[in-house]
Amino acid sequence: MNHLTTSKGEYELVRFPEDPRDRLRAWDAADEYLLRHLEGTAGDPPTDLSGTVVVAGDRWGSLATALAGCRPTQITDSYLAQQATRVNLERNGADVSSVRLLSTQEPPPERIDVLLIRVPKSLALLEDQLHRLAPHVHADTVVVGTGLVKEIHTSTLRLFERILGTTRTSLAVKKARLIFCTPDPGLARGGDPWPYSYTLPADVGVASGITVTNHAGVFCAERLDIGTRFFLRHLPRRRGPERVVDLGCGNGVVGTAAALANPEAEVLFTDESFQAVASAEATFRANTGADRKAEFRVGDGLSGVAAGTVDLVLNNPPFHSHQATTDATARRMFGGARDALRPGGELWVVGNRHLGYHVTLRRIFGNSELIAGDPKFVVLRAVKR
User: Fold this and answer.
1) Which terminus of the chain has fewer Cβ atoms in its 10 Å neighbourhood, N or C?
2) What is the spatial distance between Cα 242 and Cα 170, in angstroms, rounded to a whole number?
């Protein structure tokens, strides 16, 4: 837990799911700088927040919680960010309904008077967001972006300039910076290039030659990443009716490959990213047809999946949370997989060799087997006993 202090009060904020071992804060200097600017305590006059306020990319609900009195709309790609927002609103005595929660896959409010953008790690996601939001701003819309200095690049500013209008930046404060943009409704911004599709190469097993669809912000959206490529070459060969989970599915290429390899398998695609699950569904449908049974779920890992109902979990876990490197997500994924698997069920994991996932798997499952490896990656198998 940590405390964000503003001129309007102090807020107790947590990440979601709460983990007592997690030392990372639910807010940073970029969130603080933006709030100080809006309040008029950073050297600028206060911002009029009486109109429709939209907060895009609020990572753990810190901005929405501090601005709850303005009844803002939060737009995020992250299910975990939505849950954190609910938790933080309740923790600070605010009405959860005071913040309208939308995903990046849903239409934004028809008219936006104040647009606040926490710059995402993915430049592609920012591009897609700006294209989606641009038709809803007007000449008098106040547009302010925020991010750490290391997150704001010349390419970031060019996107604001090209899609919304004239853009400038603030001075840096505590390694954070603000972006100020004056919307030009008549700007010829061109079309949104997302989602993006490409064809897999011919050397990735059963998935060779299939079409992959990526919405903006999905990992390695313009090409097949080398870890997934290695995984596709070493997927288990199984037959018969079984329930398979593509855990942290991204664009769904791994789960789609499992479905193609075993026509009797029913695949659950799950990810905390709304963009990822939309990508997985598009990839799966493009290569298996509309009648093939599958489930697509945005959520917190395997929470909500009944214990002992899964035969096989396939996982390429992330080891970053925004800018921070952490194995917390992988640990939670492995633990969730063990709970969901039937006795004898298997978890197959691909990861960078140096991450040492075999140690974590032995701790959780009591076993870990090396299936394949090269100088960079390993594919590991753990069995629920």
Assistant:
1) C
2) 55
Q: Respond yes or no on whether the N-terminal peptide bond of residue 195 is cis (omega within 30° of 0).
A: yes
Residues 175, 148: contact at Cβ < 8 Å? yes
What pLDDT score was predicted for residue 1?
52
Q: What is the pLDDT of residues 270-284, one digit of tens each?
A: 999 999 999 999 999
* DSSP SS3 for 303: coil
What is the rounded CA–CA span in Å between residue 321 and residue 97?
27
Calpha distance 92→6 (Å, rounded)? 13
Q: What is the pLDDT of residue 178?
A: 98
Alpha carbons within 13 A on the beta-carbon side of 269: 28
Selection from 137, 157, 128, 136 nearest residue 145 by Cα:
157
250 pLDDT higher than 90: yes
Asked if 310 and 345 count as a contact pair (C-beta separation under 8 A), the reply is yes
Kindly state the tokens that stand for 117: 């953008």
- CA 244 → CA 183, 268, 365, distances in Å? 47, 6, 18
How many residues are listed for the chain in this entry? 385
Helix spans in the chain (H):
29-39, 62-66, 79-91, 123-133, 154-163, 226-232, 253-261, 274-288, 328-340, 357-365
CA-angle at 29, arms to 22 and 318, nearest 5°: 40
Report residue 367: phi and psi, to 5°.
-160, 160
pLDDT digits 0-9 by tens, 287-346: 998 889 999 999 999 999 999 999 999 999 987 444 455 678 899 999 999 999 999 999
Picking from 274, 23, 319, 32, the residue whose alpha carbon sits closest to that of residue 147 is 32
Query: CA 313, 317, 318 angle in degrees (round to 5)?
Result: 160
Is the separation of the CB atoms in 160 and 167 below 8 Å? yes
Residue 71 CB neighbour total at 10 angstroms: 14
Distance CA 97, CA 69 (A): 11
- Interhelix angle 357-365/328-340, nearest 10 degrees: 40
The tens digit of pLDDT for each residue in 339-369 reads 999 999 999 999 999 999 999 999 999 999 9
